[in-house]
Design goal:
This protein has 231 residues and is α+β, with helices and mostly antiparallel strands. The protein is built from 9 helices and 8 strands.
Amino acid sequence: MLRDLAATGWPVPVVQFSDDGLLVMDWIDHDGAGLSDTGATRFAETLAALHAAPVPADGEPAFGYRYDAMIGGLPQINERWSSWLDFFRWKRLWTAAWLARRRGRIPEATLRRIEALGLRLGEWLHEPDRPSLIHGDLWAGNVLCRAGRVVAVIDPAISWSHPEIEIAFTALFGGFPEAFYRRYFALLPAPPDFIDRRRDLYNLYPLLVHAALFGGTYSASVMRTLDRYGV
């Protein structure tokens, strides 16, 4: 995944060696500080360029990827689908919910609520004009900065997806200044009601992933999101 992102010109560490048990990357000198407004604006431009990258003309359905991935310690199934809503329903929400249930992190009733929500996704979400290549695990802890500017991004969970799911995730745990969103949406404007109607729904996927990995408050956050959408 790091090599694929590097091929797009994205700032990622150079991979020196990898196999099933070991990953060796270049050391990235960073100071642990967050983004300045200037750095956030520049990174928004970098992200918008990734999301606008051309879709490969390989004759395959667009959403997903040519191989499965991991998001944290959880499998991310990237089987390709032609419909974004179907892909998000089955390969994101349902798969993460099923894994959380199998690990005993959510009850059976919550799994059934996720299934019911999936059948109603068309009430809130729309098919994008085209799929976008996304990093997939873009929270502030995976963005390495020095002097307020991004020097590298690590730990991807790559796929061709809807760009809104990436932007939603950046807001879940905070750490991205308002300047980041101003510049991103100036370059790639979102349809109306992203924050009010769709952002929390898209963040149900990373919440389910965290619930499967850690349980606890993440499972409670899943319940609150389901309550908000009336299922």
